[in-house]
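Hello, quick one for you while I still have it in my head. No rush at all, and the record is pasted right below.
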Amino acid sequence: MHCTKCLNRNATQLHKTFQKQLRSWKRCLNASTEITEKAPNEIPYHICKNDPTQHTMEDYSKLYIIPNNEVQGRLQHAVPLQFKEFSDIVRESGIILRKPSLSILKIFQESKLHPPPKILLYGPVGSGKSLSLLHIIQYCLLKDWVVLHVPNGFHFIDRQGRTPIQESQWRTARVDQPEEAMLWLNQFRNMNPKFLEETKTTQVYKWGKRESTDKDQPLLHVVEQGVGRSMFSTDAVGVILKEIQQNTSLKVLYAVDGFNSFFGKTSHKLNGRLVNLEELSLIRHFTKLLKPEYSLPNGAYVMAMSQSSHYLVKKAGYEVNEILPDEVLHGLGDYTAVEVPYYNDQEYETMMKYYREKRWMTKELTDSLLQQVKFMTAADPTLVRKFCANM
């Protein structure tokens, strides 16, 4: 086992090596772009003006600008952090329409969605799985679906001691995570306000000796109870999921980023004892919906895999069967695996033109520059964006 000092020293050395290599690459780029001709005039990238409910494969490789009111409103918790930082700088939230998300929207448009299809997004780190999920979430919101979104499944199993846990008041064999539950309830309320106001509870829910939510009350009361009283927050999550699962009139998108975290290892400790994954109430609530007997009646499951869902732990590969255990895949039943790869040539050039127009990169976009950046980044979407920021 490596000690913490060794890990920190290795990480520091790796960072220095990368910075040195980056400076070397930049010198090469400076030298080469001064003597190369400009790229030939081509048709610039196209902006897709339709909203996601009208997107088809004909919109492939176009740029779609997400409206600011959506980014700052219902989508705010679905926007990946690094993408948000980029968008804040260029003052625009533009994503490229790629085949993985467009193919999933096609499934939604052509399927009866009963039973709900299960779709697993997979691909290498930084390939754009979270942005594909963002595209799908916006489509479902515009279609008036209820969206059950977990922005990062890892937060349920490992917060490195940053959020407290406690024994459940109702079942001593379970462990609650009040702050994580309150955070999720607030996110769900922000994304589904109309549903919570219009949908009524189907039974009485008692929260203690004196507090309860009566039958036929807006589900918003359940959320407010959980957000207002941390001791009830984890149970309030369970009530919301139960009411949604039993409502056959709803279309529901169950979307999780870092889905494989639900089946990993937890670092939570209670009374000096390492907590088992199956003891965590939130994990039980959300994985229960994956079981056939508790499946959502209508809608879809879209789950994004993560190679690095645990601190200092990275899976060797990114294929679905390399990330999820066989018993989990067997329990899911029929599923469709959709790969989100690195950019192909068309997508890469579209994004490079976009970065140049938005002044994210200041160098002239030449054929030589395109070739060199692609060689050094392997067209990894995240690396391309970071690399262009230094030019």
About this structure: Residues 336 and 382 are 25 Å apart (CA to CA). The longest helix spans residues 4-33. The radius of gyration is 23 Å. The longest strand covers residues 252-257.
